[in-house]
Give the backbone structure.
Amino acid sequence: MELSYITILFLYLLIVVLTIRKTLLQVSNPAKTLSWIMVIVFMPVFGLLLFKIIGRNIRKDKKSLQIQPFYNSTNHPIKMDLLPSNKRRLVSLLDQNLSSGISYNNEVLVIKNGEATFNSILLDFEKAKRTIHLDFYIIEGGKIFSNFKEVFKLKIKEGVKIRLVYDAFGTGRKNNSLINELEAIGVETKVYMPFNFLTSLSYLNYRNHRKIVIIDSQIAYTGGMNISDKHISSQNTLGLWRDTFVKIVGLAALDFEKVFNSDWAHAGGSLIEIETKQETSDEGGVPVQVIASGPDSPFHGILHEYFTIITDAEDYVYISTPYFVPGESILMALKTAALSGIDVRLMMPYNSDSKWMRWCMFTYLEDLLAAGVKIYLYHKGFLHNKVFISDDIISSIGTANVDERSFETNFEINAIIYDRKTTLDLKSHFFEDIASCELLSLEHFQSRPDRNKIMEAVARLTSPIL
């Protein structure tokens, strides 16, 4: 009996050593590596299982690589003369890291909050002639779902092809009945990384967080909203979810199609032949760079994007995000910009849908306040939009939060818009939201209760693996 215990202990220690070895080889961030080693050593069995589920770096797993939208593919040439001279470095960076496509002569419309957004989408659905493609993290029942479904019935009868990719974790088994309803009326659906214990346990942590609508390869929408009534009704725990979407008409829609096509193939569908057309004019429109990033990307494209927008700022950079776990590079960029005289403002929700995440977010704020960053806590519902605005000429709207999950483990998409009018529209929305915010002061923030500081410090330890 004693021998069997020794054998079990030896085998367990061997597994621990091998797992720590894999941690050292796969996790390049020292803080994250140390966090994982502590979890594995001090949480026997559970720590090993946790690393298996959320610790692996599939960027180093060739089996995970699927058809990608922009990597190693020809794309529209960069026409620097059509871009702001002080923002061309960002365009080149995102082209070189193989994460984006750029097009010109687009029409761009910023839409604030859910009611206006979904009304606009429904109107464009009704005009669809060939295809409607949707890529969403969360699909929930309610008014929005019902409205979509009714329009889909009519369009399918007219011969319009409707395809939907949804995430297995975000939508979940509880909403399988909704997917069944869509399939029953003729919508083609694919689930992204479905849960399968034997084959998908190691990929459980890697979720498709994108929100995309594309109509006839000519109109595209993206932003922070899911198919959920939280964006149109205040009748939930956190109140109305304040969010932003952008509608883009033009060749940028083809770049969104590439991303959808990649996700469709990744989810098991056959590649879709996209009907393309040649650009006829570059004059009079808006340059849009579509950036897609994920755990299988060769580089951290969206981290590069956010870092460069901050460090390239000459006058100001305003950020609105529901989740703020920035990592050392973004944290240093924000502090450096503020200390150098750039007007840096960060807006985030007062209340969060995750108390643990809120504690983790708040642990970064004191350093930023000390550096001169203005921090606003939004009180009128739940702030959920993901927006960067800078220098009255560049803005980013999409699905990526300012956190390690968006940079490392989620499949995300942003639209970077090089346009004064669009940026000024978003800037106006930002100042409208300030009216519903509390402006933090360093002195007041430092006086918060000690119990909060302790919980924040503990939460901060987990930030590398959130």
Remarks:
- The longest strand covers residues 100-112.
- The chain has a mean pLDDT of 86.
- The chain is about 40% helix and 20% strand.
- The longest helix spans residues 2-26.
